[in-house]
Amino acid sequence: MNNRIQNNPGMQYLATRSLNDKTAPNGDALRAGSPAAGAPDRLSLSARADRLNQLIQQAHNAPDVNESRVEALKQAISSGQYQVNAEALAANMLGVESSLKPA
Hints:
Layout: H1 3-6, H2 9-16, H3 47-61, H4 67-79, H5 86-100
C-alpha cells in the first residue's frame, strides 16, 4: 500500500475490505437500509461504456506495428519505387513543430 493508505486508517479499511463485508469501519453491522446491506454489490454500465471497454480491449490486442505496411514499404524502398513527397514531408514537419510551440 502507498503512504496515503498506510497513514489513513479509513483508507486502510477500504483498501482491505471485501465487497461482501457487511460491517462498518467501527465493526458494527450495517443497517438493513444501508446500500451495502442485503443484495450483493452490482455494477451496471451503459452501452456507451460497454463499447468503450470493447475498443480499449481491441487497442490492447492490436499489434504495435502494421507488419504488412512495413513489408510493403521495405519492398518499395529496395526496388527503388518508393518516392518521398518532399512537400508533404515538409508540411508534416512544420505541423509537428508548430504543435510543440507553447501557446
